[in-house]
């Protein structure tokens, strides 16, 4: 299955006790992330926050990832290879921050790969070819107007097929789209 780089982050402002929780995970139900590195950081002035990383539906001991970080004003990183984050077994990554400066910004960043589940490429066009012996601009141009812009078709029945009367021909148009699902 093809993959693309994963580079996701979540943020929280630490509460009055210096605590906070960041939760990140795929948005799509069938999406799968394969993180290789988790990084935490805290903008701090005095107190040095610690962070514990969990991979699962809740930040409980059974989903604890083998790393406890001390996050100061720099980054603290750890390899978390082997965890597949997705909606079925391990839906989220959590960082539980504690002991930091109240009001500090705490960040959990994850790098790795994410699987491409769906890739749709669409191309379409309108009025690309005209098959006719007509030599004018557009055989579908049915407007009949004189030089002053008066409608000449009011006094006659049917359209003036085969004669261009200052009408704008149908334009060619091209549409392309790319839809990628993770």
Layout of helices and strands, plus pairs?
Blueprint: E1 3-13, E2 20-24, E3 32-42, E4 49-56, E5 64-71, E6 75-79, E7 85-86, E8 92-98, E9 105-115, E10 118-126, E11 173-181
Polypeptide structure, described:
This protein is mostly beta strands and 182 residues long. The chain has strands spanning 3-13, 20-24, 32-42, 49-56, 64-71, 75-79, 85-86, 92-98, 105-115, 118-126, 173-181. Strand 4 and strand 5 form a beta hairpin. The protein has two domains: 3-116, Sandwich (Jelly Rolls); 119-182, no CATH class. Strands 1, 3, 6, 7 and 9 form a five-stranded antiparallel β-sheet that branches. A four-stranded antiparallel β-sheet has the order 2-8-4-5, with no helix packed on it.
List keywords for this structure.
11 strands; 4-stranded antiparallel sheet; 2 domains; 182 residues; 5-stranded antiparallel sheet; elongated; Jelly Rolls; mainly beta
> Helix/strand-derived class?
mainly beta
**Distance between the terminal alpha carbons, to the nearest Å?**
11 Å
Sequence of secondary-structure elements: EEEEEEEEEEE
Strand tally is: 11
Q: What is the residue-averaged pLDDT?
A: 75
Number of domains: 2
- What percentage of residues falls in helices of 4 or more residues? under 10%
Q: Which CATH first-tier class of the largest domain would you pick?
A: Mainly Beta
Sketch the major β-sheet: 5 strands, antiparallel
CATH T-level topology of the largest domain: Jelly Rolls
